Amino acid sequence: MFAAANPFDHVIDQKEFHIFDHLFGGVHIPLPAIEILGYRFQLTKFMVLEVIAAVLVVAIYVPLARRAQAGGCPRGYLWNAFESILTFIRDQVARPCIGEHDADRFLPFLWSLFLFILFCNLLGMLPYLGSPTGSLSVTGALALCSFVTIHGSAIAKMGPIHYLQSYVPHTGIPLLFAWPIVLMIVGIELVGHVIKAFVLAVRLFANMFAGHMVLATILTFIVMAKNAGLLLFSIVTIASVLGVVALSLLELFVAFLHAFIFTFLTSLFLGSVLHPEH
């Protein structure tokens, strides 16, 4: 990130990769466009990074799953760490939010959601790459997946009629007089679910975008002070580098935190629609 000519590079999707912009004259790697059924499909940097994130998840967890299926015990720091993540999501997120009986059915989705978001977040910690989750289109697509899973699962479990009936409150008032209140409450509930999905997308996007922008802004102080004299330049450079190191550690924590928050809220919303009586 610190070598990019444009501080927005980490959070803006582009048609090419920019590498070594301040060294060796810079290297730009253009991404191809593919013609599909007469439509020109342009590959972008975030698309490539999302594929990389997915491949990393598969490369790590498929061998781990095969070893676990064969009855092998976790060995080594990495295997224990990767398996602990899955156990944490199962025991501390899915089962408390969704319930013991339904949670295991949704664990593959929740694990995939958490790990994909986490790896997309962590890719932004590497120079010259970026965080796909710093784009609202990416977080919006993730929120849409959660929205469809949440309400599609509830409809599949209860049926469309009973699902809609779960939003109708029991007022104890004759329907002739209660229908305006019922319609208003049902409308508020339905709009509320759309807002929840929107908030999921915006929360993840805003935090990842803001974090990288703060880091980029601090680093631009070095460029601004390059003609201010050796003493001032040295002070600004040292302070900026130390600040970026400290904030990068915070960003590392934020990468895990917001992958967890997105998954936790998805589980919470899922549990609320699967068990409306609670």
Can you characterise this structure?
By secondary structure, the protein is mainly α. The protein has one domain (9-274). Helices cover 71% and strands 6% of the residues. It contains seven helices and four strands. Strands 1-2 form a two-stranded antiparallel sheet. Strands 3-4 form a two-stranded antiparallel ribbon. A hairpin with a 2-residue loop joins strand 3 and strand 4 (39-42). Helix 4 packs antiparallel against helix 6 and helix 6 (175-224) packs antiparallel against helix 7. It is globular, with a radius of gyration of 23 Å. It starts with 15 loop residues before the first strand and ends with a helix.
What is the fold's blueprint, element by element?
Blueprint: E1 16-19, E2 27-30, E3 33-36, E4 39-42, H1 45-69, H2 76-98, H3 100-123, H4 136-158, H5 160-165, H6 175-224, H7 230-274
Antiparallel strand pairs: 1-2, 3-4
Helix pairs in contact: 1-3, 2-3, 2-7, 3-7, 4-6, 4-7, 6-7
Report strand order across the widest sheet.
1-2
Total of DSSP H or I helical runs spanning 4+ residues: 7
Structural class: mainly alpha
Order of helices and strands: EEEEHHHHHHH
Rounded Rg: 23 Å
Query: What is the tally of beta strands?
Result: 4
Mean pLDDT: 82
When the domains are counted, the total is 1
Unreliable spans are 1-5
Overall body shape: globular
How many strands, what sense, and barrel or not for the largest sheet?
2 strands, antiparallel
Distance between the terminal alpha carbons, to the nearest Å?
A: 46 Å
Which percent range fits the helix content?
over 70%
Strand content: 5-15%
